[in-house]
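Title: [Solved] TMM43 protein 3D structure

Original question kept below for reference.
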Amino acid sequence: FQQFSDPGSSRKEHVKVTSEPKPGFLERLSETSGGMLIGLVTFLLAFYVLFTNEGRALRSAKSLDEGLSLVVPLDSIHSISQQNEGRLVHLAGALSTSKPLFDPSYGLSIQAVKLKRNVEMYQWVEYEDSKEYEEDGEIKKETKYSYNTEWKSEVVNSRNFDREIGHKNPSAMAVESFTAVSPNVQVGSFVLSKGLVDKIDNFKQLSLSHLEDPHADVTRREDYFYHSDNPRRPEVGDLRVSFFYAGLSGDDPHLGSADRVTVVARQRGDQLVPYHTKSGDILEILYPGDLSVEEVFQKEQESNTMKTWALRAAGWLSMFVGISLMTRIFYTLVDWFPVVRDLVNVGLKVFAVCVASSLSLLTISVGWLFYRPLWALLLMLLSAVPILVARSRVLPKKQQ
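Solution (posted by the thread starter after getting help):
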């Protein structure tokens, strides 16, 4: 390879050019064969994703309808009624915890459900920008490496850099990040399950303006504690620590009133636990703020719809990529002829789009067959449309 340094940017930027002989026909054919195997796996995975997603979506929708018809809004969150034992209940109220969470290393405590310490280290980060081109019968790759210093939460391994000299990072952080979770979280007289507590994740950064420097070698600046000689001009290896909290419980003079949440779950004694529906799904719902029963289940239905369409798109894309990789061999066979190669490339893309769309609709319709047979039959008919459209475009070209 050839290597060139940029004198204007010192050690922070350099360019490397590597070259290798242009692969022969048999070598390209071998690579295409490997891609076909990957394409087949991706293609089959798409069927699994699309089929199971429809069953999951319909099961979730059915479970939510069941939950909405059975849920009991509680009159009071401060008294536990035995009549609601084992039933799906709806309640809203302020969060409360048994004791505050604290970080003794920085003299910080807060009455909240979760306290997160986030540690960042000032480190070198490598960026690559590559481009390939043909020259003198060879394929050349020109890669531009640039380096910058940034605050990062994870250790950046400088051993993987193209040029570690002058850009070396420490191998570990002297202070670790962590998240503390309150062992007992309540809404009124009801104790939240672990699953419900996990849903309390609307973290906000904690202001440190009212705190003093905890140690002689730690400096507070704005909302960070710095392990640095000069926080304004940090050096590689310096640390800065920030704190985040979720689920404020109890009134705080600096942060305000306790956070309120809305919960839909099964009442078991004084605990709120998962509710198992007849459809085989689990209802264990928590949202910030005060929401009515209808608002909670509407949000859940919207979330289910978004997840369903996201997985449908992922399934279609997986099928498209799989078909493209499996048919790539036709492109390889004609890549000696530029005009033919370009036409074949366009044709293969159109073929992949049409087949992926048809098979995706067909797979979705099979997933609906046991739940909504009429919709399933309609989708089966629609699945033929992309193929028919593609065929109708091919026939006139043949006649011409």
